[in-house]
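To the wet lab folks,

You asked to see what we're planning to order before we commit. Fair enough. Below is the target structure as tokens, and below that is the sequence we designed to fit it. If anything looks off to you, flag it before the synthesis order goes out.
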């Protein structure tokens, strides 16, 4: 058992952030120092091609609570976060952007929310929750973000207004019990989906989102939109199959009404394949709709497996903790030397 274990871990994934990383680390450290001394900041360098790593190493010389994890190839935010989660030692693990588009004071508020409320498992910072707002963000980016979060929020339970943001705080047993796979920005969606399916309780905290002032944005609309659409269909297949199936069935029924109308007016032409088309549309729509219901059942089974996974992971962590304590106390036992008679 490690008595030097930090209370708080803050993970900051970085990619070519040489312009602002020093100030970011200084601001996060100052915010954490207002409440705690046992903390760590994990900077995960996701294959930066600039001098980000060198700047972080200089910071580490005078602040040992900052740690750097670096690899040469850029593999995406998801890979960086998964690397950080695996290395984090804190009882509470936070994530935030390297540009601090959310002020560092939000980290303190999220941590305190978890410490005050033992029934909460993780906190999500949201500019779209009541009391939150966005400042200095281009209108088109904000519109895309709002619409995307609305659609994606509908695809999963929890009634969260922001599901794509990185500003979060987790209890370590919550985040480490999730088997995460995503390498891209969709990891934030994957975390929410699996955490909610496994029964973890969220709290959405209002936050202020500010536009980037230093460095270059890494946002790629096409790739992000595509991955988020795929995720929403993966989470709720009935969205696609149900809508398409109902549309085709509606066309089939409209065709049937048209055939009845022609029959009443004695103008129905038996050589026209209207009846065949109507049957094809109805049967095709019904089949696609059934695919949607089947997909929904598969999603339900998948989430039940997540719950079993949580129980197994929790048991594993308890066993590891008990073994660590046993080894620690065994090493502390005083040696019994034989007495000379």
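Sequence we intend to order:
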């Amino acid at each position: 058992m490690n008595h030097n274990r930090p209370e708080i871990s803050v993970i900051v994934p970085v990619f070519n952030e040489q312009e602002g990383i020093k100030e970011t680390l200084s601001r996060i450290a100052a915010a954490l120092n207002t409440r705690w001394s046992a903390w760590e900041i994990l900077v995960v360098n996701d294959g930066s091609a600039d001098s980000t790593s060198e700047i972080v190493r200089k910071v580490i010389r005078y602040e040992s609570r900052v740690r750097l994890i670096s690899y040469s190839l850029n593999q995406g935010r998801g890979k960086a976060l998964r690397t950080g989660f695996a290395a984090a030692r804190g009882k509470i693990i936070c994530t935030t952007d390297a540009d601090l588009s959310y002020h560092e004071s939000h980290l303190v508020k999220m941590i305190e929310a978890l410490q005050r409320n033992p029934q909460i498992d993780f906190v999500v910072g949201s500019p779209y929750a009541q009391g939150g707002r966005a400042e200095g963000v281009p209108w088109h980016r904000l519109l895309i973000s709002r619409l995307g979060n609305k659609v994606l929020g509908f695809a999963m339970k929890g009634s969260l207004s922001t599901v794509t943001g990185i500003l979060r705080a987790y209890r370590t047993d919550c985040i480490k019990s999730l088997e995460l796979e995503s390498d891209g920005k969709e990891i934030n969606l994957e975390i929410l989906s699996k955490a909610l399916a496994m029964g973890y309780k969220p709290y959405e905290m209002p936050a202020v989102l500010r536009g980037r002032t230093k460095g270059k944005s890494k946002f790629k609309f096409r790739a992000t939109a595509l991955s988020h659409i795929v995720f929403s269909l993966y989470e709720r297949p009935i969205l696609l199959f149900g809508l398409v199936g109902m549309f085709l069935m509606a066309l089939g029924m409209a065709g049937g009404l048209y055939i009845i109308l022609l029959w009443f007016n004695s103008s129905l032409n038996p050589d026209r394949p209207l009846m065949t088309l109507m049957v094809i549309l109805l049967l095709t729509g019904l089949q696609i709709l059934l695919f949607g219901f089947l997909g929904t059942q598969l999603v339900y089974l998948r989430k039940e497996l997540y719950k079993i996974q949580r129980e197994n992971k929790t048991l594993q962590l308890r066993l590891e903790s008990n073994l660590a304590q046993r080894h620690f106390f065994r090493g502390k036992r005083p040696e019994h030397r034989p007495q000379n008679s």
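Structural context that might help your review: The chain has ten helices and nine strands. The chain has two domains: 8-234, 238-329.

Thanks,
Computational group
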